[in-house]
Each structure stands twice: as structure tokens, then as C-alpha cells.
Amino acid sequence: MDEYRGRDMRYVALAMDVLAVAVQGGRGDDWAAYIGSVPGNRHSEEWVGVLRHGEKLHQVIAEVMFPDFAQKYEYRR
Q1: In the chain, how many domains are there?
Q2: pLDDT at 73
Q3: What Å distances lie between residue 62 and 34, 55, 71, 74, CA to CA?
Q4: Whole-prediction pTM value?
């Protein structure tokens, strides 16, 4: 989790076992969002696995789910 410390990050549970996660990029002016399945026991810990192993969301979907990120940062392709 240390590699994401200090970055703007948010997750949304789409189902008990599905998370979408938005994270500010390492450059600071970009972002990306990912989706993945999780056990559904502790979302507050499982979001890291989605960032590491999840599928990147299409920009349009990511911007609908995380409009605040879309306003602040440029989506990383």
C-alpha cells in the first residue's frame, strides 16, 4: 500500500465482491480507474488488489463513476 500513500484515491463497491478504484497517478496530474473482483470481506484493504490486478476501466465509464477525478486530473491512457 505504500506506493499509493499520499495519492488521491477512492473506491466504490459495485457489488459485495466487485470494486472499482480510482487513483491519482504518480505524476500527480493524471489518474486511472480499475475494476476487479474481491472476496468482499474488507473493502478497505481489498482495493489494493484491484489496483494491482484489476482491469483498467474505459475512460467514459471511469469519468461517470468518479466525476471529481475527471475534473481534477487527466485520464491516463
Answers
A1: 1
A2: 96
A3: 8, 12, 12, 12
A4: 0.92
